[in-house]
Structure formats: C-alpha cells, structure tokens
Amino acid sequence: MNSFDLSLFNFLHASADRWFLLDWLATLFAVYAGYVMVAFFLVTIIKERDRKKRAYAFAWWALAAIVSRGIITQAIHFFYARPRPDAALGIDSVFDYVGVSSFPSGHLALYATLVAPMWYLNRKRGTIYAVVVGLMGIARVYGAAHWPSDVLAGIALALAVTYGIKRLLLGKEKIGQKGEKEA
C-alpha cells in the first residue's frame, strides 16, 4: 500500500459503520448494483431490433468480461496476492465478500466491461452505467473491500480489454457512429 491508497482509503472509509443509510447505500452499489446492470443490459439487448447490433453488443461484452475478469484478473490474483484493507489494517468490512486478493478489483474488472457495449446500444444508459461503475468503485473502497488503486486498476483493465475486443470484432469501426439510432 502506498500513501495515495492509504490517504484516499482513510478519507472514503472514515464514515463507515457510523450511519446505517450510508452503509446500506455502499452495500447496494458494491454488492448488488452489478446484477441490476447485467439485467438491464440483457433487456436492452433483447429489445434491440437490429440483429447484428444485438449479437455484436452481446459478443463484445461476453468476450470482454471473460478475458478481463475470468482470465486476466484471476491470473493476477494467482501471482500477486495483495491483502484487502480490512485484513491489512485489522478493521471490519461494511459488507461480506468472497476472496482474499485485492488487486485488481474483480467487480470493477467485470462490470466496467458493460459500459462501452451499453453506450453502443444506448448512449444515455451507457452514461448511467459509467456513473454506476464509479459509485461501485467508491463503495468498494468505503466498505474496506479494496484499496483505491485496486478499483482504478480494475476499471483500467476492463476498459483496455473492452477496447481490444472491440478492435478484434470490428476493426476500426467507431462505437456509436452518427446515423445509428439510439434505443
């Protein structure tokens, strides 16, 4: 852990276990928001009329999620076991979680892969997803499940993999080209 991690962690975690509503919101975003994001993404895909666009968005997300969370994050966790803040500092976590290694955040490595494909399908929802991913990251730090650098690394990994998968699937075609209708 470095001074950036410790300073930002202390700032975000300072209010933990003091206000029930704040702890509840942190748990909502850190633990449950991802499930809602996936559900709305799947509904958006089902409602998309263009079959090619629907198939592309799903393949884009599925491949990015598998590579980002299922392969790269797991490999990093296997070779680099960084303790979580609650274990490193001897404090209580706001919510329960599974896993020992902290770096990078598996939650963010998974759920941040939804942002670009959702933006491709619907810009407004894509923007909302970006905000929710940010709040999820803050909540994971607030709840003592991650250091700030874990969250940033998880998001950066997801964005890099998502971009790489996009390039692999479509080459140089841009996301959300003008002329595409928004759902």
TrEMBL record:
Signal peptide: none
Domain Phosphatidic acid phosphatase type 2/haloperoxidase positions: 55-166
Membrane topology: Multi-pass membrane protein
Transmembrane segments: 20-46, 58-80, 100-121, 128-145, 151-169
UniProt keyword terms in alphabetical order: Cell membrane, Hydrolase, Membrane, Transmembrane, Transmembrane helix
Chief location category: membrane
GO cellular component: a single term: plasma membrane
Family matches, as Pfam families: PAP2
Subcellular location: Cell membrane
Example GO molecular function: hydrolase activity
Protein name as catalogued: Phosphatidic acid phosphatase type 2/haloperoxidase domain-containing protein
Lineage: Bacteria, Candidatus Wolfeibacteriota
